[in-house]
From TrEMBL:
<keyword id="KW-0282">Flagellum</keyword>
<keyword id="KW-0813">Transport</keyword>
<keyword id="KW-0966">Cell projection</keyword>
<keyword id="KW-0969">Cilium</keyword>
<keyword id="KW-0597">Phosphoprotein</keyword>
<keyword id="KW-0007">Acetylation</keyword>
<keyword id="KW-0963">Cytoplasm</keyword>
<dbReference type="GO" id="GO:0005829">
    <property type="term" value="C:cytosol"/>
</dbReference>
<feature type="domain" description="START">
    <location>
        <begin position="27"/>
        <end position="199"/>
    </location>
</feature>
<keyword id="KW-0445">Lipid transport</keyword>
<dbReference type="Pfam" id="PF01852">
    <property type="entry name" value="START"/>
</dbReference>
<dbReference type="GO" id="GO:0006869">
    <property type="term" value="P:lipid transport"/>
</dbReference>
<dbReference type="InterPro" id="IPR002913">
    <property type="entry name" value="START_lipid-bd_dom"/>
</dbReference>
<dbReference type="GO" id="GO:0008289">
    <property type="term" value="F:lipid binding"/>
</dbReference>
<dbReference type="InterPro" id="IPR023393">
    <property type="entry name" value="START-like_dom_sf"/>
</dbReference>
<protein>
    <recommendedName>
        <fullName>START domain-containing protein 10</fullName>
    </recommendedName>
</protein>
<keyword id="KW-0446">Lipid-binding</keyword>
């Protein structure tokens, strides 16, 4: 397996710390959506750039952090809550807290559907939990003709306990969708796709 020609590495404590900082720090982020407990920010790149970094914060009043972590972590249960998913499965376990998996995603017509092969790693920290991933190349899972192989530069969740039976969910993603995308898709990503994906 490789990551952009480089050997794959397992995220360490500094990677998780950096991810948490990106989720919690608002400097350099621009608010794009704020409604009903869901806030979406984008960062840095021009609005018409296809590789945007997007962050979502959702207040979950009746969901304990541990329960939300279990739901997000369970690939078999994902089809229950992820309406964009076509297929997902585990490819192999690397360590006690890292694996490689496959995920395919429905894109709005007339765009071609996307798929990913990612290395996913997770870390429970007391009452808080993190799950992060990035794309890798796997010799047994090359790009398919019926999908565009997209690239997750960095995607993940930070779940923070927030009192009894409540939590805050951060979803942060920077994905290169590959292929040509019309301008209306790029412009709508932060207003539509991020809130939908992160629910």
């Amino acid at each position: 397996m490789s990551r952009g020609g480089e050997m794959v590495y397992i995220p360490d404590d500094s990677d998780f710390s950096s991810f948490r900082d990106q989720c919690e720090n608002l400097e350099g982020w621009h608010c794009r959506y704020n409604k009903a407990g869901v806030t979406v920010w984008s960062q840095g790149q021009e609005e018409n750039c296809t590789v945007q970094k997007i962050k979502t914060r959702i207040s979950c009043k009746d969901v304990p952090a541990e329960t939300l972590y279990d739901v997000l972590h369970d690939t078999h249960y994902r089809k229950k809550w992820d309406s964009n998913m076509i297929e997902t499965y585990d490819i192999g376990r690397l360590t006690v807290n890292a694996d490689v998996g496959y995920y395919s995603w429905k894109c709005p017509s007339p765009l071609k559907n996307r798929d990913f092969v990612t290395l996913r790693s997770w870390l429970p920290l007391g009452n808080d939990y993190m799950i992060i991933n990035y794309s890798v190349k796997h010799p047994k899972y090359p790009p398919r003709k019926d999908f565009v192989r997209a690239v997750s530069l960095q995607t993940g969740y930070l779940i923070k306990a927030n009192g009894d039976g409540a939590c805050i969910l951060y979803y942060l993603t920077q994905v290169d969708p590959r292929g040509s995308l019309p301008k209306w898709v790029v412009n709508r990503v932060s207003q539509f796709v991020a809130p939908k994906v992160s629910r």
